[in-house]
Structure formats: C-alpha cells, structure tokens
TrEMBL record:
This is UDP-N-acetylmuramate--L-alanine ligase. Belongs to the MurCDEF family. It comes from Crassaminicella indica. The chain crosses the membrane at residues 14-36. Its main location: cytoplasm. Cell wall formation.
Length: 462
C-alpha cells in the first residue's frame, strides 16, 4: 500500500493520468500547493489544465507512453482503461500506481478532521454549503468540490491542515478508500446500475462507508430516507440525524418559498429552536441539503448566526440551477440533474419560479442508466410544459444498440404528450428560438454537454 507524508515528501513527483478531470485536477492542485512536483495528461486541453499549468504542473495533451516521466507515483481515474499506454508503461517500470479514490483517501489521513459528503444526490451542493460556512467562519478549510464554486474561485481551495471537506462518490465503491472523521449520507437511491447489482448492493456499500468512521467520529444521516435508515443500525460511531420532524436531532418547520422558489425555514435541534434560515437557491431538496450542512457545521462549533449568514450568501455552484442569462425575455437555466429523482426535484423547483412555459431539454447520461431506470425517467417530467430529449451521452460507455433516446420519448408520451426527440444541438437551438415565447423558462438538464445548448442560444442573442 502506498503512503506518503505531505510534509516529508518521500514521494515527490506524482503523475496524473486524466489530470483534467474535476476531482483529479483538484487533488493535483492541493499537492502542488504542498510543494510536490506534479505532471499529467488528458485527452483535451481546458481551462482546468491551463490553470494547473500556470501553477507549475507539466501537462501533456493526449495519452502516450512517452509522456510518462521518471516519477514516484502514478494516479489514474476510473475512466482510464487497462490498456492505456501510460498505465501500461508505469506497470512495466514498477512505478507505484493508485486510483483517484486512493490518493484522495491518503490526503484525508493528513488532516485532523475530514468531512466526506456522500449520497446519490446533492453531494456537490451540500459540500459547497459546508465549505462556504466554514470558510467564511474563519475555519480556513481545505476544500475539494465536484463543481465550480465562484466563492472559492473554482473547485479547490487549500487551507489549513485542520479541516478537509470533500465529496464521497459511491460509484465502484470509491468512497471505501476514504478515511472520514465525519461522514454525511444525504440519501440512497438506485443509480450506477452498471456497477451495482441492485438497491441492496447500494445500501450495503453505503453501510461499509459509514463503518469507516471511527468511534471518535460522527455520522450525519437523513432519517427521512428509508434506505439511509437501514444503514444506521450497523454503525459504531455516534450518529446525528436530520429530517422533517422531531424524531430527528435536527429538523425543519415552517418552510415557505418566495416568488423565486427560494425557501425560508426554521430549524430545531433537540427540542430547542435553533434559528430561522433563508436560502438563495431554489427547491425543497436544497432545504434538506442545507439542513445537512447546518447539522455538520453546528456540530463543529460554528456559531449559529454565522451559519445563518453564510447560508444566505451561498448562491450555488455552476450547473446546479445555474441561470445562464436571457434570450430576449426568455430565461436560460442549466442544471446537472441526470437521475429521475434529481429531475423531479429540479423541475419542481423550476415550477416555483415565475414563468410562462417551462421547457426541459434533457440529455440522458449513459446507456446503462437510461435502460435500467427507463420507467422512472419516463414519469419524471410532469412539471414540464415542453420536453426535448437529446441523444444519450455515452460518457464511459459504448453504444450496444439496446437503448435509444427514442425509447425514452415513447415512454414519456404515456405521461406527457409534449415531448419530442432531436438528434443534434443545432436543431434544438433552432427549434427553441422559433417556438419559445416571452417569459418562458428554458432548462437544459443532464450530466453531459447539454449545457452547450444554453450557450449556443445565448451566443445567438440579437
């Protein structure tokens, strides 16, 4: 097992295969800041690789065996195949190799308190909320987020060695390589069924994650979720629950939404009123995310008045109900939602925002997810007035011909007739420009590159 000390630099030069990824780049930046020599490769140049280059990393575009330098450690992502030429060469040269999850776990061990936010939905938003509360309460945390957060200037911020805040992804059991002192479970839902066998397999994996938390640590869990409740009986560490009623340690009452869909709500803790909170991001799901952040930060000793202030000043991360701009009097919004539960929550939040017609332009993400959850996807769009389904974004997968976006359109028509399929972004942009009316809200949705449709619409402005 590879280990290293951030201060001793026994391992000095670290090479990242896939360094341009949102998480890999953040880890690379943390190591650069701590004085390590960092290099790596990615298939495409980006603002992320450019930023790393400016900070001192050597970046190679494209994967080639000649790229691999004489280094002490190689890090790879789950997307890297076993025949990757750099990975093959590293094995031949007997260079120690670790996954992204392993290196992140090694980093977590070097901090006094490591906060790992897990759950099928809401990880990026909740991690960002916790990060902003701690950052602006003078806790100076080190932060790794799976999205861009303007308030820290990106997806990573290096602080002191006391607090480390990061997302904990369940895919391929990645978070089982972590060393959390505080773990949060937001929810547990069916997803990543290309890896997990069924919901029981998913619950068992989250249970294994929770059992990583030491007895001196803390688990914060959403009690309203029956799958999360299944985890609690198997955990040895102290548990804090949050949810919608007084059976939880933290709960909400008096939730009200303003004309923008932003919530005001009261929070109670162990039968005592804790405070009144306001959010500047929409949706009931974000009340739950905020409550997890409140429970975490309150347990760390952040004064409640600072939690209230900093939550109100949180305006969300990129691609989470991200208002891109206006095309005339038509509002263009983008969101990362790519699971039926997320789609429902996001559309429900959008429905509370004043609008004429609500458009949803959805790009399914991966063939396996679309096929496995086809019926769940089909009845997720009831809040939308107009639905456009784009081609499936393959991500790490290959098209076997078993599922197509047309199959989803056919299923959706059983619930909502106002749905069409379009096979390229140019057609979608032309159609929206022709059909959308003043005061309409156009929402692009998905974890792939569907955000480009919103950019294309705005680029055609005027």
């Amino acid at each position: 097992m590879v280990d290293f000390d951030l201060d001793k630099h026994d391992v000095n030069h670290i090479y990242f295969i896939g360094i341009g990824g949102i998480s890999m780049s953040a880890i690379a930046e943390v190591l650069l800041t701590f004085g390590y020599e960092v290099s790596g490769s990615d298939m495409k140049a980006s603002s992320i690789t450019e930023k790393l280059s400016k900070k001192g990393a050597k970046i190679y575009i494209g994967h080639n065996a000649h790229n691999l330098p004489s280094c002490d450690l190689v890090v790879y992502t789950a997307a890297i195949k076993s025949d990757n030429p750099e990975l093959v060469k590293a094995k031949k040269k007997n260079i120690p190799i670790v996954s992204r999850a392993e290196i992140l776990g090694l980093l977590m061990k070097k901090f006094k308190k490591s906060i790992a936010v897990s759950g099928t939905h809401g990880k990026t938003t909740t991690t960002s909320m916790i990060s902003i509360i701690l950052e602006y309460s003078d806790f100076d945390p080190t932060i790794l987020i799976g999205g861009e957060l303007d308030q820290i200037g990106g997806n990573v911020k290096v602080g002191n060695r006391e607090y480390f805040v990061t997302e904990a992804c369940e895919y391929v059991g990645s978070f089982l390589k972590f060393f959390p002192s505080i773990g949060i479970i937001l929810n547990i839902d069916k997803d990543h069924l290309d890896y997990f066998k069924d919901i029981d397999h998913i619950v068992d994996t989250f249970t294994a994650f929770a059992r990583l938390i030491p007895k001196s640590g803390l688990l914060i869990a959403f009690k309203d979720d029956p799958n999360v409740e299944k985890v609690l009986s198997s955990v040895d560490c102290p548990i804090i629950t949050y949810g919608s009623d007084a059976s939880c340690d933290y709960w909400t009452e008096n939730i009200h939404f303003n004309e923008n869909g932003f919530a005001d709500f009261d929070v109670f803790h162990k039968n005592s009123f804790l405070g009144s909170f306001s959010l500047n991001i929409p949706g009931k799901h974000n009340v739950n995310n905020a409550l997890a952040a409140i429970a975490c930060c309150h347990s760390l000793g952040v004064p409640i008045e600072k939690i209230i202030k900093n939550l109100k000043n949180f305006h969300g991360t990129h691609r989470r109900f991200d208002i891109l701009g206006k095309l005339g009097d038509i509002t263009i919004v983008d969101d990362y939602a790519h699971h039926p539960t997320e789609i429902k929550a996001t559309l429900k939040a959008a429905a509370k925002v004043p609008h004429n017609k609500l458009w949803c332009i959805f790009q399914p993400h991966t063939y396996t997810r679309t096929k496995a959850l086809l019926n769940d996807f089909a009845n997720s769009f009831d809040q939308a007035d107009k639905i456009i389904i784009a081609d499936i974004y393959a991500a790490r997968e290959k098209d076997t011909g078993e599922i197509h976006s047309k199959d989803l359109v056919k299923k959706i028509k059983s619930y909502n007739k106002n749905v069409i399929y379009m096979d390229n972004f140019e057609k979608i942009v032309a159609y929206v420009k022709d059909k959308a009316q003043p005061k309409d809200l156009v929402l692009t949705m998905g974890a792939g590159d569907i955000y480009k449709v919103g950019q294309m619409l705005l680029n055609k402005k005027g």
